[in-house]
Amino acid sequence: METSKYIHIVQYYETDKMGITHHSNYIRWMEEARVDFLNQIGWPFDKLETLGIVSPVLNVSCDYKLSTVFSEKIAIAVAVKEFKGVKLFLSYTMENEEGKVVCTGTTSHAFLNTQGRPIRMKQDYPDFYQCLMKMVEDQ
């Protein structure tokens, strides 16, 4: 399944005294892109929560390549790198309007029920499981 890049426009409040985007914002943008990605593949966050699925972040990493500034449009591509039924690994590539990579990142997530216990995705949510497995295969 092909997904579109998420577009984030750098806001003035996201910049620091030097006029560049503060590093903490890139992690927020990854979350925005992840929520958009889930919408695009037909599994929006609110649907997951209604089903009793929570997906905490286990790990996040960012590799900053170039600075960004106010009003710049940043295109964020999200890809499923690995899915092991309980753990999901995503990668993010952020590009400016010139197509230059400004940041790359990764996140890993667990799938838990509302009591904080791991979910058996394959048995309990086979449609969602198959969707994520297909995303890995399409890489």
Structure description:
The protein is α+β, with helices and mostly antiparallel strands. The protein has one domain: Roll (Thiol Ester Dehydrase, Chain A), CATH 3.10.129.10. The protein contains 4 helices and 5 strands. Strands 1-3-4-5-2 form a 5-stranded antiparallel β-sheet. The longest helix has 17 residues, at 24-40. The chain starts with 5 loop residues before the first strand and ends with a helix. The mean pLDDT is 96.
Topology of this structure?
Elements: E1 6-9, H1 24-40, H2 45-50, E2 57-64, E3 73-83, E4 87-95, E5 101-110, H3 121-124, H4 126-137
Antiparallel strand pairs: 1-3, 2-5, 3-4, 4-5
- Top CATH class: Alpha Beta
Q: Classify the fold: give the CATH topology.
A: Thiol Ester Dehydrase, Chain A
Spatial strand sequence of the major β-sheet: 1-3-4-5-2
Structural class: alpha+beta
Distance between the termini: 10 Å
Reading the helices and strands in chain order gives EHHEEEEHH
Major sheet: 5 strands, antiparallel
Principal-axis shape equals elongated
- Indicate the percent of residues in helices: 25-40%
- Give the DSSP E fraction (strand runs of 2 or more residues): 25-35%
Continuous helix count:
4
Q: What would the average pLDDT be, to the nearest integer? A: 96
Radius of gyration: 16 Å
**What is the total domain count?**
1
Query: Judging by the overall fold, what is the CATH architecture?
Result: Roll
Number of strands: 5
Task: List unreliable stretches of 5+ residues.
Answer: none
Annotated CATH homologous superfamily: Hotdog Thioesterase
